[in-house]
Design a protein that fits this description.
- Helices cover 29% and strands 23% of the residues.
- With 371 residues, it is of the alpha/beta class.
- A nine-stranded mixed beta sheet has the order 16-15-14-13-7-12-11-8-17.
Length: 371
């Protein structure tokens, strides 16, 4: 079967792993072009060489954004722009008659997300987005353990993502402290997507938020001393009731100097499960049964390495077989809705009922996309 041609818009920090994986890891896609509002950044990616001096991506073309969108060969466009541009760029992709795959979050607002879903449906196109880490070996193994009954009926879950922000190392950390950033909108998609994949959709939430600093001072080598205004809440705590009846807690923070908290745990009527970092694809996965110590469980699925782009490959699969894409727009929108709901609940001081839902992604079976 002929691979689906893919283009990338946005050649910033995250683009490297997409370029690598979409050029060689998945057999059902072919990366043909990249573009950026700054054409020189796209050209720089095309000109990258390995240690032997060979071009890393010999078939890759640098294009202007409008040229990429007009190319009839390209069927999927991966949108790696900053969060504030996700909606505008994805809308242009869909209007050009191509499927759109956004980096997280799907959009900044619910209204923007709804509009993109409606536009994709109207045009008979697919829209989806990151994260796709839930398709990796770690979380797929955890899901299989739950579905096979190893912890009984899931009753609760916890998720923690705590650090002290990005100004100490990131070359351009501004957007982490602007709308669309902050710990919940930056990292929450990884944790919430994993929880929805494991436990199902969320029915209602309560949230509380705070902000430790109104300004951040960069300490990285290239930005040392630069002052960043903080326009988002930098600690977000949320409670969730899943449609299944299970309850969950999530805390995301850029105000923590250090901690010993777990990443994700799921607790059931007959066992507990330690779920690996949802920002990665691998393990470890650990199981605790009554009367037994924690035991690391061998991974049951493939894609334990950094496989970003796996959701794009699955979207290409959905294009050819007519079935649903796993990293779907509906899933990404439900996660967006949950994140906004935490902030809405904090602002109102009341529980917030979710209006969105989504189909739970099918488990990933086998090594579907390898050459």
């Amino acid at each position: 079967m002929k691979p689906v041609s893919v283009g990338i818009i946005g050649c910033g920090n995250i683009s490297g792993i997409y370029l690598k994986n979409l050029s060689g890891l998945f057999g059902n896609v072919r990366l043909v072009a990249c573009a950026d509002i700054d054409f020189s950044r796209a050209q720089a990616k095309v000109d990258e060489k390995d240690e032997a001096g060979n071009r890393l991506y010999p078939d890759l073309k640098a294009m202007r954004v409008d040229g990429l969108l007009a190319d009839p060969e390209i069927r999927i466009v991966v949108n790696l722009t900053i969060p504030a541009a996700h909606y505008e760029v994805a809308k242009k992709i869909l209007e050009a008659g191509k499927c759109a795959y956004n980096e997280k979050p799907l959009t900044l607002s619910r209204e923007q997300g709804k509009e993109l879903l409606a536009l994709a449906k109207e045009k008979g196109l697919l829209i989806g987005g990151a994260p796709d880490t839930f398709l990796g070996a770690g979380i797929q193994t955890a899901r299989k353990l739950i579905e096979d009954g190893w912890i009984g009926r899931p009753v609760s879950a916890t998720a923690f993502m705590c650090c002290h922000g990005h100004e100490s190392w990131h070359p351009a950390p501004e957007f982490y402290y602007q709308p669309g950033g902050g710990p919940m909108f930056d990292m929450g998609p990884y944790y919430l997507t994993a929880l929805v994949n494991l436990l199902g959709t969320v029915k209602s939430v309560a949230g509380m938020t705070s902000r430790a600093f109104d300004e951040r001072i960069c300490t990285s080598a290239n930005r040392n001393g630069d002052i960043l205004p903080v326009d988002v809440e930098t600690s977000v705590a949320g409670l969730m009731r899943f449609a299944s009846g299970a309850v969950g807690t999530i805390i995301t923070s850029f105000d923590v100097w250090g901690h010993n908290l777990p990443l994700i745990e799921v607790h059931g009527t007959s066992g507990s499960l330690s779920v690996p970092d949802p920002n990665g694809f691998g393990g470890p996965v650990k199981l605790k049964r009554p009367g037994q110590d924690w035991k690391e469980i061998p991974l049951s699925h493939n894609y334990a390495e950094n496989s970003r782009g796996l959701g794009v490959a699955d979207m290409a699969r959905a294009l050819t077989d007519g079935k649903n894409a796993r990293a779907s727009g509906e899933l990404a929108y439900h996660v967006l809705d949950i994140m906004h709901a935490f902030h809405d609940s904090s602002d109102s001081g009341a529980f917030f009922e979710l209006q969105s839902s989504c189909q739970i992604p099918e488990p990933l079976e086998g090594d579907l996309f390898r050459f």
